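Re: the 414-residue chain
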Amino acid sequence: MIKILCIGVLVALPTARAQQLPPVRPLGPIERVSTEPLRAATTAVALSDGRVYVNDVTARRVLLFDSTLSRAQIVADSTSVTAKAYGARPGTLFAFRGDSVLFVDPASQAMLVLGPLGKIDRVMAIPQPTSGAPFQFNVLAGSPGFDARGRLVSEISVTVPRAPQGDPGKQLMQPPDSALLVALDVVSRAIDTIGSIRTSFPRMSFVRDANGDITSITGTPVLLPVIDSWAVGHDGTVVAVRGRDFHVDRLGADGQWQSGSKLPFAWEHLSDDAKTAMIDSAVAAMKVRRDSMAAAQAQRRPTPGAGGARGGSGAPAPAFIDGRPALTDLPDYRPAFRFGAARADADGNVWIKTTTLDHDQPVYDIVSAAGVLIDRVELPPFRAIAGFGRGVVYLAVVDAEKVVHLERAAIRRK
């Protein structure tokens, strides 16, 4: 018995050492801060000479900053009468060829090629596949880009069949639990499915009357979804971070996925009491939000007889009900990350924004191209990552006046 225990300890020691977490360290010093006021800076794409394109989605502008971040040139704006129109909806900005970037306007289905001189070099229509659903960009899901074969990689949702119309009773609309990663050849318009991503959506149930009209809609949120995240690296490598067991998969040049080892993580077990507290808090927040929406709707409600009925059937608007998640809807361990967690830097690494907090700030796990956790970084307060350059990271920061600025910080202290 003693011999068996000793062997077990000797086998476990290398594993325990391999699973040790690197210490959390602060980011390197902030080198530059922009003076141009921004309303948002969701994406920053650095050029080879240190200049950087920025997508200010709230103000609907694309700007090109010089290498010192002291001067900014407006490349696309929201003035529809100019030749620099941004578009009516939030656009997507990502690296293209050389020192050019692509700006995708979903409203016009156009892609603007922005050159190194800060001008719109040309405009291309978003190429659509020869068959199947239209190609769309999900700006909230991941970071689109071009893979090593020059194909445009993005995420598309799986189609969900709608509940049959006209049947009375309660019907559940089951949301998809996955989405597809696809690669589109912009020349041949051939589209290939290259992988799948685990995702999550609220559950929706409808109650219909005998006429088929919806009388109530119940939405039940997913409070702690176990999902995947993905990104496209500067070299065209497609990476997917798997949330179920926390590891990184990479799409090789041969079209095959290579699975990395499980990453070390301090998993937090959730007791039933902790789950109940989360559910109670979420339900209370939903009630506050629903009451506020109902009050605002009541102020806009037309007077009786003024045509306030919904549709041509004369049926009243359906009631919206907040569903309460069950304890079994929550995982037993807090997920390692949330939506949009993965970002690829300019040095071949993947940054994963985890649910771990250090000094009330989220911790980023940095995983190398070999799939190994090599570093853990904590950002300064009120910052979010906008993009990367060689050895630097670009941050969006909100000042005391609620104005957003762009910062460039060294990843490591010298």
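The mean pLDDT is 85.
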